[in-house]
Amino acid sequence: MAWDTERTKSLLLEAATSEFCTRGLAGARIDRIAAEAGVNKERIYQYFGNKNGLFDAVIVAALSSLMDEVPIHGEGPEAMANYAGRLFDHHQEDATAPRLLFWEGLERGTEVVGLPKRMANCASKVNSTIAALPGISKEDAGDLLITIVSLCDTAPVLPALDGLMAGNDPGRLERRRAAVVRTVHLAASALTAEAASAGSAPSGSAPARSATTETAPAPAAK
């Protein structure tokens, strides 16, 4: 009977995802992953090389699926606010991606695996944001996206801090979601207004600058 390689890989990735989400890269154990998957641990080395290679595969798989599961639809600030709300909901139901990204940042810093695919995914998201907010720059689109990701990813990863700052009443989750959606709508509206202002400026004139981009005054001499 032929060995079902793809099924074995799938079982290992599923078990490894749970292990890495809970314990991170350093705390994860190959023996536990293999036991949970019901697979000989030698298969991990055969298919993924080592624990780092398995972590790489888990990260790439989790983020790739997220791109398809939560797309950006429509146009205008409402579209970006709606995207933020849906991403928030997704992470409340499944905190895999936020947890893995936090562990990756803590344990690897700026080291990125699956770079070509992840760069392509990020570029696609940036382009979708520009399509939703016509006229904004690539840099502003990227800043808005990382703001959305930060707002939505911290909710399931920092529950203790959230409770300390905002309380744990029964309606807390709904209030947090509303705050995220409101913040993103305001940010997207500001970018849209700034882009429209720059586009309507007379030829040769300097575009209007937002308060957030103004150069701060030099501190007074001591």
Description:
- The protein is mainly α.
- 73% of the residues lie in helices and 0% in strands.
- Helix 5 (77-93) runs parallel beside helix 8 (138-157), helix 5 (77-93) packs antiparallel against helix 10 and helix 8 packs antiparallel against helix 10.
- It is globular.
Strand and helix layout:
Blueprint (H helix, E strand, L loop, with lengths): L4 H23 L2 H8 L4 H7 L2 H19 L7 H17 L2 H13 L6 H18 L5 H20 L1 H8 L5 H29 L22
Key phrases:
222 residues; mainly alpha; 10 helices; globular; disordered C terminus
How would a crystallographer describe the biggest sheet? none
Low-confidence stretches: 205-222
Distance between the termini: 81 Å
Oligomer: single chain
Listing every helix as H and every strand as E from the N terminus to the C terminus, the arrangement reads HHHHHHHHHH
Strand count:
0
Per the principal axes of the C-alpha atoms, what is the gross shape? globular
Indicate the proportion of strand residues. Answer: under 5%
Q: How much is the radius of gyration in Å?
A: 21 Å
Structural class: mainly alpha
Arithmetic mean pLDDT: 87
Share of helical residues = over 70%
